[in-house]
Amino acid sequence: MSKQKVILSENLEKILSEAVACCPHDKLFVLTDETTLQLCWPEVAEMDCVRGAGMITIGATDENKTLESLSHVWTALQQGGATRHSLMICLGGGMVTDLGGFAASTFKRGIAYINIPTTLLSMVDASVGGKTGINFGGLKNEIGVFNCAREVIIDTKFLHTLDYQNLASGYAEMLKHGLISNEAHWAELLRFDLADVDYRLLGQLVEKSVAVKERIVEADPEEHGIRKALNLGHTVGHAFESLALEEHRTVLHGYAVAWGIVCELYLSTVRTGFPKDKFRQTVQFIKDNYGVFVFDCKQYARLYELMTHDKKNTSGEVNFTLLGGIGDIRINQTATRDEIYEMLDFYRESMGC
Ligand code: GLY
């Protein structure tokens, strides 16, 4: 996988024009979702570099990260006359950049694509690092490939289009980056007031967060080793998300990750000596800002089963990324079913559900 160019832009038109010019193409397409089409596309629509582009729009939210939406994109590319030399711009949140990246990577064995993430989650995580895919068979990101966008252009002006939930969702991935990087970054993230956003400060934190992700992806692009650090909170988080999907409950990805972090930091205190004071401070921040995902002990078996489907598992054991401290990453940790049930007990008691 080639190294990806990630640019923090203060002049989207200039940066996008240069990016499009750097990718010689016969036809240009822009993929958005229904929400982004309304809120973000108007910022881009008037630019010369996208004039005449074929527009493709899919439904918003993770429920639409499906084979049907993917098929819609492939069909639109085919009917729009796309060739192997066409270029697609994915303008949107993680759903659009993941699904669009996969559509581009597979259409005629792969066309070039550029990501313009418009949500915090996509800026700091989804659009960076070449993971693309869709949900399938009730499991998150079950089908996909590693294939980097030619460029990722991050313009934090789009953050103003987000409501509290979408900001908080992306912020959970930033919190994860703080936990796996260093104490100073973790501490400044816990001081940030999500209820009264200072966008200038948020922009600076986004830059640091993207740098954490880029550093890790560069060291291990296809997740054979250290990239698993980015899975902190995700083994449990994906199980929460899949359960929510089955029960038609709406849960944003970052919320599930935040609750997953509570669980996996608990395991870290038990298994790898994560300091209790830092654990308590992190859990308090998550409780204050994310509320709680409610489930009862009758759902433990299903949650456990969902964890056993995780892509990161080997030989039937549930694989976790744990921490020995902030920045002290322990990949390839396992836990028994009893330990996982205990972790879920702890979660319910401490979060009050
Ligand atoms: N979202 C985790 C990763 O990109 O590896």
Describe, in plain words, how this protein is organized in 3D.
With 353 residues, the chain is of the alpha/beta class. It folds into two domains: 5-161, Rossmann fold; 164-351, Dehydroquinate synthase-like - alpha domain (Dehydroquinate synthase-like, alpha domain). The chain is built from 14 helices and ten strands. The strands form three sheets. Strands 1-8-5-4-2-3 form a six-stranded parallel sheet, sandwiched between helices. A two-stranded antiparallel sheet has the order 6-7. A hairpin with a 2-residue loop joins β9 (319-325) and β10 (328-334). α5 packs across α6 and α11 crosses α14 (337-351). The termini are far apart. Bound molecules: glycine. Glycine binds next to loops.
Question: How would you briefly describe this protein structure?
Answer:
By secondary structure, the chain is of the alpha/beta class. Helices cover 49% and strands 17% of the residues.
Q: What integer is the average pLDDT?
A: 95
Overall structural domain count: 2
- Report the top-level CATH class of the largest domain: Mainly Alpha
Q: What's the count of strands?
A: 10
Tertiary shape: globular
Low-confidence stretches: none
CATH architecture of the largest domain: Up-down Bundle
The biggest beta sheet, please? Answer: 6 strands, parallel
CA radius of gyration is 20 Å
Q: If you consult CATH, what is the topology of the largest domain?
A: Dehydroquinate synthase-like, alpha domain
Strand order of the largest sheet: 1-8-5-4-2-3
Helix content: 40-55%
CATH superfamily of the largest domain: Dehydroquinate synthase-like - alpha domain
Q: Which structural class do you get from the secondary structure elements?
A: alpha/beta
**Ligands (ions, cofactors included):** glycine
